[in-house]
Amino acid sequence: MARVAQVIGQEILDSRGNPTLLVTATLDDGTSAQAGVPSGASTGSREAVELRDGDKTRFGGKGVLKALANVSGALASAVVGRDAGDQAGLDRAMIQADGTPTKGRLGANAILGVSLAVARAEASSRGLPLYRHLAQMAGREPNLLPVPFLNILNGGRHAANSTDVQEFMVVPLAAQTFAEGLRWSADVYQALGRVLHARGLATTIGDEGGYAPQLPSNEAAVEVILEALREAGYEPGQQVSLALDPAASEFYAEGKYHLHRDNRVLSSGDMVDFYAGWLDRFPIVSIEDGLGEQDWDGWAQLVQRLGGRLQLVGDDIFVTNPLIIKQGIERQVANSVLIKL
User: Fold this and answer.
1) 115 in Cβ contact with 90 (< 8 Å)
2) pLDDT digits (tens, 9 = 90+) for 67-109
3) Any catalytic annotation for residue 340?
4) Could you tell me the sign of the dihedral formed by the alpha carbons of 31, 15, 226, 199, in that order?
5) Are 20 and 108 in contact (CB under 8 A)?
């Protein structure tokens, strides 16, 4: 049984050039592992607190030196000497050390960095890949890889002057292996670049790696992706389907949905009709955050109308908070949930 001997952190830059944390955990058997903490551009208002310094003279206030100090201070005091295999106990100890419902005192970024680093170190100590170690902690053996969703066209907060809908993804549902699905999706991504170029549209990249062209409408994004699917040799809806993450909270204001690219202002019911129309014409299998995080009545309409036809994923509305997820189940809001560490 290995125990946590040390946790230390450093400030690094994420893929968007903003500071984040890298935590190194070392066990008493000499095993060590690192974990970088991800950060989203589009987030729910009730998410756990990502502790930032607020010093505008340094990284525009986004520095994480306070969170770093908590890694080597209060969090190290909470976890050093603990059994590295008791992930639940270790996480509870850090949550108790923080003492707030939002992890706002020590920082969710600091707590997550320590948790992930210890989990990776323990997996390495046991000679297991991380996914198998996590599965065994849950009392299961993994036997199925998820179907990947690949974000190939960016809008919203991920790409200025592009679509209102934030993410357009391809889903290689018919692929027999993960490698095959990844190859199909890469084929479509490259084909999309050629389609956009042929139309005289920009092939610049959004901050999550998808193309970010200036299109005349949100629907035009679906149309160019379908053209790319066929150009790559795949039949839409048969081999490769589509998924959306509109991140609707970003264009929801004063009880209405403002689709600037379409020059339309829609009610919740109108927005459900909008998705229903797309679903009738396009091979869409999943919509994440299709309505705003505050629009619970609208979400109930969405599930009632379309819940039997596709996956309706709640992310910003639930923010991986068990209490909010429980409320969502009781009120039949969304029919699936995105769980983020």
Assistant:
1) yes
2) 999 999 999 999 999 999 999 999 999 999 999 999 999 999 9
3) yes
4) negative
5) no
Mention every residue, 6+ apart, whose C-beta is less than 8 A from residue 24: 6, 7, 8, 9, 10, 32, 33, 34, 117
Torsion angle of C-alpha atoms 38, 41, 44, 50, degrees rounded to 10:
50
8 A C-beta contact, residue 76 and residue 24: no
Strand order in the sheet with 150-154: 150-154, 167-171, 241-245, 284-288, 311-314, 336-337
Active-site option among 47, 122, 167, 208: 208
- The whole-angstrom separation of Cα 126 and Cα 118 is 12
Least confident among 11-15, 80-84, 155-159, 299-303: 155-159
Chain-centroid distance of CA 287 in Å reads 13
For the stretch 199-252, pLDDT in tens is 999 898 887 889 999 999 999 999 999 999 999 999 999 999 999 999 999 999
**DSSP assignment of 109-178, as one string?**
HHHHHHHHHHHHHHHHHTT--HHHHHHHHTT-----PPPP-EEEEE-GGGSTTS-SS-EEEEE-TT-SSH
Closest CA to 50 of 27, 19, 26: 19
pLDDT band at 41 (very low <50, low <70, confident <90, very high): low
Catalytic residue selected from 11, 219, 256, 340? 340
- pLDDT tens-digit map of 9-39: 999 999 888 999 999 999 999 999 999 998 7
Two structure tokens written together for 276: 């229903």
256 is catalytic: no
Q: How far out from the chain centre does Cα 112 lie? A: 15
The Cα 291–Cα 31 span in angstroms is 45
